[in-house]
Specification:
The protein starts with 5 loop residues before the first strand and ends in a 7-residue tail after the last strand. α2 packs across α3 (82-94). The protein has a single domain (6-119, 126-318), classed as Beta-lactamase. The chain has twelve helices and twelve strands. It is an alpha+beta fold and 320 residues long. The chain has helices spanning 52-61, 68-74, 82-94, 112-120, 133-146, 159-172, 193-204, 211-221, 223-226, 232-239, 275-285, 292-296, and strands at 6-13, 16-28, 34-38, 44-45, 179-181, 187-189, 191-192, 244-248, 252-256, 262-267, 299-303, 306-313. The protein is globular. This is Asparaginase. Pfam families: Asparaginase_II.
């Protein structure tokens, strides 16, 4: 991947470039043609949690019956705030299951205040508090709805995971060439960066009566459930009318609008720091005119707690 990546952001402190982030950027126009390109969009990546809306589409297709905030939670990497945890409990209870059925990795809430309260109450790291509990609860609920075994739902050969893999291939237009285990313990399927953007465009433009359209509606209407308080993904969806989006570990982000414009970003070193600046710049390059992008895309570099510079997306992020 390093052969196909290019500089996409500078870290500027006191007017001096202190660091450089390399990566890949692709932006699609409404017709699906590449309008913004930095690096090779055919590069194969692991999209990590940016794939969750695609996974949610697959789950609805095979029998999961969710809409609204719980469908957003099923697509989420939530911050572990109290309502997020309660939502995961509701997902499980609706399927006749409980917390002990979750097989995702033990974790603490991502939100600092929620983590402090969780630990202050004497709770250890737990699957419910980990950011993928909504997805895992939805996977279990899907198995119950389809009549599939719940104990083996993480196995790549399980009917659920086969359905997800097929949906990844369909929506991205890519062959799934690599399968591994994500941080939460679920199977992780590869795609190209361009394929990730295509998948989001297809979800964002889908008929609202279809599974993809239902996922898009849930993300647009309930962005807090997708991320959490202050999270960039939540702020992007709140600030850009009609946008859907999802962040992923190792510097991945994908977004799309109802007219088919779409973007996907992968930071080569896996850092999350430059992602808001690069995503904001890419959306502007696609013609998105939303005042919120200026604030969301501003990533300050601090000196003694005060801004002394910024993470700056390079100007050539604005051209194909």
């Amino acid at each position: 991947m390093d052969e196909t990546a290019v500089p996409i952001a500078h870290v500027v402190r006191g007017g001096v470039v202190e660091s450089v982030h390399h990566g890949l950027v692709v932006g699609l126009d409404p017709a699906g043609s590449v309008a913004v390109r930095q690096g090779d969009p055919a590069t194969v990546i692991f999209p990590r949690s940016a794939l969750k809306p695609v996974q949610a589409v697959a789950m609805l297709r095979v029998g999961l019956d969710l809409d609204g905030e719980l469908l957003a939670l099923a697509s989420s990497s939530h911050s572990g705030e109290e309502a997020h945890r309660e939502g995961a409990r509701r997902l499980l209870a609706g399927a006749g299951l409980a917390e002990h059925h979750l097989q995702n990795t033990l974790g603490l809430p991502r939100d600092a205040a929620a983590a402090l309260a969780w630990q202050g109450a004497g709770h250890p790291p737990a699957p419910l508090a980990q950011n993928c509990s909504g997805k895992h609860a939805a996977m279990l609920a899907t198995c119950v709805a389809a009549g599939w075994d719940t104990a083996t739902y993480r196995d790549p050969t399980h009917p659920l995971q086969r359905a997800i893999r097929a949906t990844v291939a369909e929506l991205t237009g890519d062959d799934v060439t690599h399968v591994t285990v994500d941080g939460c313990g679920a199977p992780l399927f590869s795609c190209t960066l361009g394929g990730l953007a295509r998948a989001f465009a297809r979800i964002a433009t889908a008929d609202p009566r279809t599974p993809a359209g239902r996922v898009a509606a849930a993300l647009r209407s309930h962005p807090w459930w997708l991320g959490g308080t202050g999270r960039p993904v939540t702020r992007f969806i709140e600030g850009v009318p009609g946008l859907i989006g999802k962040d992923g570990a190792e510097g991945v982000f994908a977004a799309a609008l109802a007219d088919g414009r779409a973007a996907a970003v992968k930071v080569l070193d896996g850092a999350a720091r430059p992602v808001p600046a690069v995503v904001a710049a890419t959306l502007r390059a696609l013609g998105v005119d939303a005042p919120a992008l200026d604030e969301i895309g501003r990533v300050d570099v601090l000196g003694h707690g005060r801004p002394v510079g910024a993470v700056v997306a390079l100007d050539y992020c604005s051209s194909a």
